[in-house]
Amino acid sequence: MRLKKDSSEQKLRGAYYTPLQLADAMVELFASQNISTVLEPSCGDGVFLDALQNLNLLNKVDKLTAVEIEPDEADKVRDRYSEFEQIEVCTEDFFDFYNRVLGKEQYDLILGNPPYIRYQYLKESQREMQSQILTSHGMKANKLINAWVAFIVACVQLLSEKGKIAFVIPAEILQVAYAEDLRLYLANNLAKITLITFEQLVFPDIEQEVVVFIGEKGEEEKGIRIIEMNNLSGFAQLDLSQNGFQKLQHVKEKWTKYFVNAEEMSLIQELRADKRFAQFSEYGIINVGITTGNNGYFSITEETSEQYQLSEVT
Ligand SMILES: C[S@@+](CC[C@H](N)C(=O)[O-])C[C@H]1O[C@@H](n2cnc3c(N)ncnc32)[C@H](O)[C@@H]1O
Questions:
Q1: Hey, which of 48, 68, 169, 303 would you mutate to test ligand 1's pocket, going by the most ligand atoms within 8 Å of its Cβ?
Q2: How confident is the model at residue 205 (pLDDT cuts 50, 70, 90)?
Q3: Which of 40, 42, 75, 169 to mutate to test the pocket of ligand 1 (most atoms within 8 A of CB)?
Q4: 7 pLDDT band (50/70/90 cuts)?
Q5: CA-to-CA distance for 156 and 163, rounded, in angstroms?
Q6: 8 A C-beta contact, residue 210 and residue 232
Q7: What is the position in ligand 1's atom list of the atom closest to the CA of 13?
């Protein structure tokens, strides 16, 4: 069994930093928009601020707030951007920050890569705050829920009327059972959802599959779209203002079904309605088979192994 005391400091704080190329590409999507207030809820060494600066956007915003729990990292960012009066770096637990500013502050753009920390690795006070954030928005709280889920829920609450959120998050949002309440919450609280997936791994040092999640508030409900890219170079062709949204069902179901296009979906529905076909579940049970657990032999890294264990439980 892996104990909390044996886990690396990097893992306990979920500190896997975003490559600058990805941060640049994400920021560029919002470069032409009218953005006055920005929040980075867990800024690490400040790569998203660097990306904003690369595009000369820091001078255009009225206020940017960056939060980071690790004092050394927060200090680095504060020092690097000390000449920008509009930037405030808070050395604080984001959950405390959220409780402090909720109802007082709102943000037009919330950007980042929230920490991927298993429930077991959170402090008791963080577990309580995480549960509070989830249950106060009609979601269940349990020991399978990773910290990034509460981050995304809290950040959606902090968006302004037409605010936008762009997060790098684990690809498991698409299908794991522990994120089913989250999928419904996002469907109910955002007008448009764009998910960008990658064929190749975009984090060079970890095997974690990630997606870029973009959520937009607004009156006109549009739905969900999934954009499949091979790698980061696909951003060059992406225009957020284009359509291509499918109607999002307000249910907890997996989002993997949105990978099919309208034509493929109608074929599936046709086959489902065809009495010549029966559901496999009428004949058998589909389940995970016996697993050896010998991850070393199968060259599964610690990260994917943990993900696998989680999906097995779910
Ligand atoms: C995945 S890293 C991302 C850092 C940066 N946003 C980036 O994209 O490179 C997550 C960061 O969250 C910070 N963190 C972990 N728990 C936090 C919390 N409760 N509040 C604020 N920051 C936290 C970690 O120290 C780490 O720097």
A1: 68
A2: confident
A3: 42
A4: low
A5: 9
A6: no
A7: 15
With bands split at pLDDT 50, 70 and 90, how would you rate the model's confidence at 222?
Answer: confident
Bridge partners for 170 per DSSP:
210
Pairing of strands 63-68, 223-229: unpaired
Mean of all residue pLDDT scores within the chain? 88
Residues 170 and 257 occupy one common structural domain: yes
Q: Could you tell me the residue range of the domain that residue 298 belongs to?
A: 271-313
Cβ of 215 less than 6 Å from ligand 1: no
Looking at the structure, tell me whether residues 228 and 277 fall in a common domain.
no
Residues 81 and 101 grouped into a single domain: yes
Give the pLDDT of residue 309: 44
Domain with residue 148: its CATH number is 3.40.50.150
> Tell me, what amino acid is at 47?
V
Q: Compute, in angstroms, the gap from residue 1 CA to the centroid of ligand 1.
A: 26
For residue 275, what are its two tokens? 């009495």
The answer on 211 and 279 residing in a single domain is: no
CB 170 near ligand 1, within 6 Å: no
Checking if the pLDDT of 76 tops 80, the result is yes
Going across the sheet that includes 37-40, the strands are: 87-91, 63-68, 37-40, 107-112, 159-170, 210-216, 192-198, 223-229
Does residue 307 register a pLDDT over 60?
Answer: no
**Rg, C-alpha atoms of the chain:** 20
CA–CA separation, 26 vs 48, rounded Å? 9
Q: Is the CB of 163 under 6 A from ligand 1?
A: no
